[in-house]
Design a protein that fits this description.
mainly alpha
Length: 308
Amino acid sequence: MTLVRETHSPQPKSSFDLSAYLADRVKKVEVALDSAVPITYPEKIYESMRYSLLAGGKRLRPILCLATCELVGGTVEMAMPTACALEMIHTMSLIHDDLPAMDNDDYRRGKLTNHKVYGDDIAILAGDGLLAYAFEIVADRTQNVPPQQVLQVISRLGNAVGAAGLVGGQVVDLDSEGLSDVSEETLNFIHTHKTGALLEACVVCGALLAGATPDDLDRLSRYAQNIGLAFQIVDDILDITATQEQLGKTAGKDLQAKKVTYPSLWGIEESKRRAQHLVESAQAELAIFGEKAQPLLAIADFITNRTH
């Protein structure tokens, strides 16, 4: 497994109140998402889109976008359309991932999956609708950002969600199911693309909107790459150790699908150790930003300490 080399010492822990910060940002994101997708004709597709989009969740991806934009000197307002777009793309990936032809799951965020409520056909179209609208909302609703930076964000989103990112990772994931000889290199490819590419886009897009320098973009990309892989390792651990009620989805799916996971390669304790090392490497990238980096530092810790 390739880790990003630490260039700074991790920053000391602060008294930053992450719970209050997340609650405030979640509230803002929920309001923006609710207003972004009103119900109109044909009602069924909008209801299906809203069913999954407004089903709750940690809203970690849009919050990463908002936090990074603010870190670099931007505002919540200029980043909110992109933050909503990222959650739409993430929701699309969940709707499609749960389909019978993919991971075939009945529950997501404690509720029946989209296709269980609306059928496979409408679920596919709901995901398509959210993906298309993600790009529209960035282009049409972003304000006080130079057009060239908005174009960079749109390009980055397309790369993260396409065959070079999420789609490519999903393909290799599907091809690897049931195989006993999946290597660590292949597993890393799956998750740096299927999960990590979108998480990295959340951070990088927030920075692009605020006009980050190339050096800062590099630091923030490395931060995001490390927390993205840590996030997936923790996901693999929780699939084994958490209950369906805690996860909000079916527990033990990886084992049922005979997927190779990080705990199956390293064991649970070694997986935890490596996830923590990734988080510390991510936090080290933020040393240059000082106190302004507190939200991103705390979110990195949250990733390894979460229970769902």
